[in-house]
Design brief:
Shape: elongated
CATH architecture of the largest domain: Up-down Bundle
Number of strands: 2
Strand order of the largest sheet: 1-2
Radius of gyration: 23 Å
Order of helices and strands: HHHHHHHHEEHHHHHHH
């Protein structure tokens, strides 16, 4: 790590976090998303902008990028944290000093030139137990920890399910993978419950959510970081057969997130287009018969995994999205930029609701879900 990068990293872990925390306490005291025209706020914001801009410019002046991919991605996250904080405090840094480095890093990696949620839960190196955050607020630590643990559990479930196609759904060895996937999806629900129980709603809405807005890099605007910007959840969707990679809506979901996932996740998203679902494999074997003991056991575990995946999504929507985003927004004075990650909040909520119903295989007018096919599996398992 070069000295300019080390200095930037030290600042992000130290003064950057302190400045944001002090600002957030001022905002929270007034229950305001932003406070304009106050000398104490302006002084803190000016310090943040000036110090960060100077440090990033020193890195850019060297005109050399780290050789390894992980280091480049981490550096992109550091620059992105700074730009995200500037957007949160509604101030524009000097793009001519910042954008060239962000764009060079993103081009070398094939990702959007901003921080993403992967910089918080997949590529967030801790030092002395402390990982990169915007603030020192306990609510941000709770959010990042339990949201990150849920992502880890989704990745475990996806890894287990990916081990099944080479074995076949009737293979007794596949039972291990189905059981592991089901357990991991149970962990998702447990972490989401803890997050819903422990995260302060007002703190999230006023002091955490604003860092996830869209922001400009150079001449272009890039949407905000999204907690769903990782490939494992899509692998689960498609392998379980709950979502189709040939559905135009789901294709848009995958294409939209593609520049915002970590580089190692991009090939995983690309592979979904040629992935046969386990649901299709079960229907083929169950209809052909006979129903062996291992096929029956695996099919029952499969149905339980589908149910658990749907339940976790429904819980997330009704216990996290609605109370932490939709309800507080309804009680906040109208702002043209009130959003979760870029698009209008109503659009974000409707997209999440559609995904919720697909993952839960809920019957809904105008939406084709996997419900008839899951019911068919259940029917074929009945004694004849």
């Amino acid at each position: 790590m070069s000295q300019p990068v080390a200095d930037l990293e030290r600042w992000i872990r130290g003064e950057f976090t302190e400045l944001n925390t002090e600002l957030e306490e001022l905002y929270f005291t007034e229950k305001a998303i932003i406070l304009a025209g106050r000398s104490d706020v302006d002084s803190l914001v000016d310090t943040l902008v000036r110090e960060g801009e100077s440090l990033i410019a020193r890195v850019a002046e060297r005109q050399e990028l780290p050789a390894d991919q992980d280091s480049r991605y981490e550096l992109l996250g550091l620059v992105g944290f700074y730009l995200g904080a500037c957007r949160r405090h509604e101030v524009e840094p000097d793009q001519s000093r910042i954008a060239p480095l962000a764009l060079a890093l993103s081009t070398s990696l094939g990702v959007a030139p901003r921080f993403s949620s992967a910089h918080q839960h997949l590529h967030n190196r801790a030092v002395g137990g402390a990982f990169h955050t915007f603030t020192a607020l306990d609510s941000e630590r709770i959010f990042l920890t339990y949201n990150g643990l849920a992502v880890m559990a989704y990745r475990r479930a996806a890894h287990a399910l990916l081990g099944i196609p080479p074995l076949g759904v009737s293979n007794p060895l596949a039972t291990y993978h189905f059981s592991d996937a089901l357990a991991a999806l149970g962990n998702v629900m447990a972490y989401s419950r803890t997050l819903a129980d422990e995260l302060d709603r007002d703190r999230f809405f006023y002091n955490i959510r604003p860092y996830f807005k869209s922001y400009r890099v150079g001449r272009s605007e890039y949407r905000g970081a999204n907690a769903g910007d990782f490939a494992a959840i899509n692998t689960i969707d498609v392998l379980l057969g709950l979502c189709s990679p040939h559905d135009p809506f789901y294709q848009w979901v995958a294409a939209d997130k593609y520049p915002y996932v970590a580089p190692e996740d991009q090939p995983v998203l690309r592979a979904l287009a040629t992935t046969e679902s386990l649901l299709a494999a079960f229907l083929r074997e169950l209809e052909a018969g006979p129903v062996s003991l291992s096929l029956r056991e695996n099919a029952e575990l499969f149905l339980a995994a589908c149910k658990q995946h749907g339940a976790a999504t429904v819980f997330h929507h009704h216990r996290l999205v609605v109370p932490y985003l939709e309800e507080p927004a309804a009680n906040t004075p109208s702002r043209p930029d009130l959003t979760a990650s870029g698009p209008p909040l109503a659009v974000v909520i409707e997209t999440l609701a559609r995904l919720r119903d697909l993952r839960a295989a809920r019957e809904r007018p105008g939406l084709a879900t996997a419900r008839p096919y899951l019911d068919r599996v259940q029917q074929l398992l009945k004694p004849r």
